[in-house]
Design brief:
491 residues, alpha/beta, Peroxisomal Thiolase, Chain A, domain 1, six-stranded mixed beta sheet, 19 strands, 32% helix
């Protein structure tokens, strides 16, 4: 049971700021830093208490497609809290980690008011490219108090050599293994993905914060076309996160004691119950089962255990949706139905996937829906890298009976990870465990296969042979035995 002191330190989400701009003139469009400040000020107004922001003691920002050295510092100064601890997290750090730490600092008594904010202006960059107009950013010379970065590389050197540094390629390879494991044909699986994402688009159409607020048909999503090109088979553009968006978000937290002292009405309070994560890093090609996600299972179970509930008792679920396999692998790890659209936003292809910032938007949307009083709990998942790191945030309209839980389960996930050796140069025979075809506007389509080559080893091979390309997109190659000559497919 919580003591009175620990109850006073219970963190609550009290302010939500979700904003977007769709300005055709890049010269008039706000830069990402301005979007962050605007989102933070919106979160402050959302509390109904004007003085809340000046008391902020911790500001964390996940890096976007911008060059700011210390955006958290600029935000802190803009809101009258220049002495706040300022944090910048590089790409590869889980967005949920920042949310978890913001809440944990309150629970530990190290702060009474914390803030996580981020923004990206991909549409501004796109419009600048289209119009040939240069856009500028605020120049900073100061550094954050704390810089966070991943400890290991996301890609295996063999993946880099094969041209697999494009995330969509490795996600599509994982997707092929997931399809084969479930015994779906290539065409049936493409139909399934299109149906699922058509549902996503309908949910986005009813989300006031979504970038695309219209439903997209199954056929439009499934089949490649001029405005929906194939990216990495079977993924068309509509299966992929929409990065060219201008969106900003902010989540403002207080201790219960601080919220009461400021007079923030309890109807605004949403309780973070748990933040669980794994930072164990295994390259895709080295994973024993490339379509499985043990980290999602372990962190998901831990979050639910902290909330003393099962997944069936969670009212709202948002599964990270950069690519379809992220949704499916997490759903399977949690024991959820694979055909249900587990999203409250409409997903990253339709609601918008601001670079390295989406989890803040999803968490804010979850809190909005919980505030409406029709639901009690929400579970929001987080992904970093190539399904490399996993995390969950569990939210509730009621305080957690055991207090806020913040847990890093990396060691447990590492212990349960089946890891294979990946060779860089290979000639011989192997069995296909995953594959895709990469499409590019300016280059020949290229098939890429991941093979088991015996003795717990893997290799990657490629092909531009049109016959191979046709068969890779028509037939099932998982389990086929191939002859490889210097990392090139022979048969």
């Amino acid at each position: 049971m919580n003591t009175a002191g620990s109850t006073n330190r219970t963190p609550v989400l009290v302010g939500i700021g979700l904003i977007s701009q769709r300005e055709e003139d890049p010269a008039r469009a706000r830069e990402p830093l301005t979007l962050m400040v605007d989102a933070v000020e919106a979160a402050g107004r959302d509390t109904g208490i004007s003085a809340v922001l000046t008391g902020t003691q911790y500001v964390a920002v996940p890096r976007g497609r911008w060059r700011y050295r210390n955006p958290a510092g600029a935000v802190a100064r803009a809101i009258g809290a220049p002495s706040a601890t300022q944090v910048l997290a590089d790409v590869g750090v889980l967005q949920q980690s920042l949310i978890g730490e913001a809440c944990a600092r309150i629970a530990r008594g190290e702060a009474h008011t914390t803030l996580v904010t981020g923004a990206d202006a991909g549409y501004r960059l796109l419009r600048a490219q289209i119009t040939g107009m240069a856009v500028t950013e605020t120049t900073q010379t100061d550094d954050p108090h704390l810089s966070l970065a991943p400890k290991e590389h996301l890609f295996h050197i063999a993946e880099r050599r094969a041209g697999l540094e494009i995330p969509v390629a490795l996600y599509a390879i994982m997707e092929s293994a997931f399809r084969a494991r479930h015994g779906w044909s290539v065409d049936a699986h493409r139909d399934r993905l299109a149906r699922l994402y058509a549902h996503f688009s309908t949910i986005a159409a009813n989300n006031p914060h979504a970038w695309h607020r219209h439903s997209v048909s199954i056929d439009t999503i499934r089949n490649a076309g001029p405005r929906n090109p194939m990216q990495a088979f079977p993924y068309t553009r509509h299966h992929c996160s929409t990065w060219n968006v201008d969106q900003g978000s902010a989540l403002l937290f207080c201790s219960v004691a601080r919220a009461n002292a400021l007079g923030i009405h309890p109807s605004k309070w949403i309780y973070p119950v748990a933040s669980t994560e794994s930072n164990a890093m295994v390259p895709v090609s080295a994973r024993g089962e490339i379509d499985a996600c043990p980290g999602a299972r372990i962190t998901g179970e831990a979050a639910l255990m902290a909330g003393q509930m099962t997944i069936r008792e969670v009212d709202l679920v948002e599964l990270y949706s950069c690519f379809p396999i992220a949704v499916s692998a997490y759903a399977q790890a949690l024991g959820l139905d694979l055909e249900t659209p587990h999203t409250i936003t409409g997903g990253m292809p339709f609601a918008g996937g601001p670079f390295n910032n989406y989890v803040l938007h999803a968490s804010g949307r979850a809190a909005e829906l919980l505030r409406q009083g029709q639901r009690r709990t929400a579970l929001v998942s987080s992904v970093s890298g190539l399904l490399t790191k996993q995390a969950f945030g569990l939210w509730s309209t009621k305080p957690p009976s055991g207090g806020f839980t913040c847990a890093d389960l990396s060691s447990m996930v590492a212990q349960q990870s089946d890891i294979r050796d990946v060779v860089e140069d290979f000639t011989g025979n192997g069995s296909v465990v995953g594959y895709t075809v990469l499409h590019s506007r300016d280059q020949l389509s290229r098939g890429i296969v991941l093979l088991d080559i015996g003795h717990r080893r893997r290799a990657i091979a490629t092909t531009e042979n049109p016959e191979h390309i046709d068969r890779l997109e028509r037939d099932e190659w998982i389990g086929q035995h191939l002859t490889i000559d210097q990392n090139r497919i022979c048969t």
